[in-house]
Design brief:
Strands 3-2-1-4-5-6-7 form a seven-stranded parallel sheet, sandwiched between helices. The protein is globular and about 50 Å long. Helix 4 packs parallel to helix 5. The protein folds into two domains: 205 residues, 3-Layer(aba) Sandwich (Rossmann fold), CATH 3.40.50.720; 30 residues, no CATH class. The protein is an alpha/beta fold. The chain is built from eight helices and seven strands, in the order βαβαβαβαβαβαααβ. 44% of the residues are buried.
Length: 260
Amino acid sequence: MRCDLTGKVSLITGAARGIGQRIADRLAANGSVVYYTDLSADEARAAAAATPNGRGLRLDVTNAAEIEAVIGQIVAEAGRLDILVNNAGVNTFAHRVTIDQFPREEWDRILAVDLTGLYEMSRAASIRMRAQKSGRIINIASIAGLVPLRLQCAFVAAKAGVVNLTKAMALELGPHGILVNGVAPGSTLTEGTRKLFYGDDGLFRDSVQRMLDHVPLARPATVDEIAVAALFLADPENSYTNGHILVVDGGWTAGYAREF
């Protein structure tokens, strides 16, 4: 997929690897100046170095002062901010347990990044976008925010919050020329899911086939397949999609199950 993002300035959170990096790469390949941000400045710079349009910066989405400083720096350098992709997110590996056993500190850690961090990023970016009367905010949610999954209550709650926050932001910001949409990936092949499912020593390797039995395409997504969806939502010609959650899950949530 190709679109013309020449002259656009983008900020991607969690862009040092995985889905975030591929979204950043896609936006840069289509002409945008892209700020790759991540907790590690070195890793963000390394990811950005692959494209002449890339810039790498450290950014902790749980730190409101750091968010304001980074967005201020981007606007000072580039003159504007056109596209924000809220991709940074975490889940739990060690605490795949029912809610009665789920630790409060793990709940707080996940909500701080996945939901409150997205709020802080969107709030700071939308101030600049309202001033320029245009912008795109793309939130990376999950099918877990649409169809709850077991043993990850904090992640499910955070992503459900992302889904409805996306819609609320679309209502509020649409009149100011800012389109807000989300992407809800199904299971996607990343470093994290290799540790959980798809690697030979994955924690839940024995159950991966049972999960894929509910996916008509019978495989996880690639990160590039998720990035294409984000690029579609960023495309200037896609000018009437607002408040939408684009599900990219191979048909998982369509209700398909091979054994039924």
